[in-house]
Amino acid sequence: MENRLTVYHLDDGKELRGGQRQLLYLVKELNLLGHRNTVVCRYGSPLHKAAERKGFNTLTLPYFFEWDPVSALLLRRTLKALPAGQFPPVLHSHTSHAAAVSWLASVCLDCVRVAHRRVDFIPGSFTARFKYSKAHSVIAISDAVKEILLKAEVPEEKIAVVNSTIDLDDTPWKPGEFPAYRSAARAALAAELGLPPDAFWAGALIALVPHKDPENLVRSAALVLKEHPNALYLVAGEGPLKEKTEHLAHMLKISDRFKLIGYRKDPYKILAALDMFVLASAEEGMGSVLVEAMNASLPIVATTAGGITDVIENGANGLTVPPRDPAALAAAQLKIISDPELRQRLAAEAHRRREDFSSPRMAALTLKCYEAAIEDLKRNRHPLE
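Structure (tokenized):
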């Protein structure tokens, strides 16, 4: 393929969370289009292992710290060893720290730098200047993230909005098989965790970190359980707020109905078993897990934090409420629990809209960003920037 690109996808993450899954979806689609892709990650990390299982090319760096000269030098050696091609290599940083390594590695080299921004808080002035303003193209995962980049004075002409996505090929059931998959998943979880299979199961797949606001979820659950004491909450995920979340559930006397079940490698098994998905975030770049919940035909309750409203339209494919408002979050959940017709309508529309977030569409939009970055380099050959 004469027009194929060489793309290095940089990610220094130590976990396999939403951003890393998005990277893997993108690499899969770009490989299918004939481009050369390499996942540049930590050795032995969950991302490294996942990329190797999928047969993707990998390059490992130590990523000692943010502006790590050792990682930059190792990547630079790889770039300088590349044969001359029709297009310069693309360095696509999928995390903020990786963007720093990308900048250092490409000084005085003909490379294009693409920086992904997935979080909805304003970067520091130094970070905004060197990681984003000096990039040739910047990808924001939602309109909310774009607005934050603009506030940080990143040039608007460099920013493109490309929503996060799911790989529909990863769906573990075939058309028409979802009821059977759901039944089996629910029975298996009920047996594994000793849960009542006939209860109403609400839940979330989240990292237990401050911006996901698991305490908001706990407090809303306590209010819901006053009205529906037989409901049950399952929260899959790990993080530094685990003990604090457990303690709050204990203090609110809902520990027997609010279960933290740890990190799960099979998210669809959890999603398919639920009756409702709840995302209580205080800050959120977009919330790609929402698209997975949509794929599992779940009615959704979420806050309006960050880019969530790029995915969930209130009253259409879910219900949205303000962040940090457990009473409002509980009221929306109670509305869904008490109204089976609403529950069915929201779930059906959510499932229909999942196609708007397919990985081939995301890859096509990302390729446009690469093309824009290459044109920017041709017009403005300032490698030090």
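Residues 6-165+358-379 form a domain with the Rossmann fold fold (CATH 3.40.50.2000). The chain has a mean pLDDT of 94.
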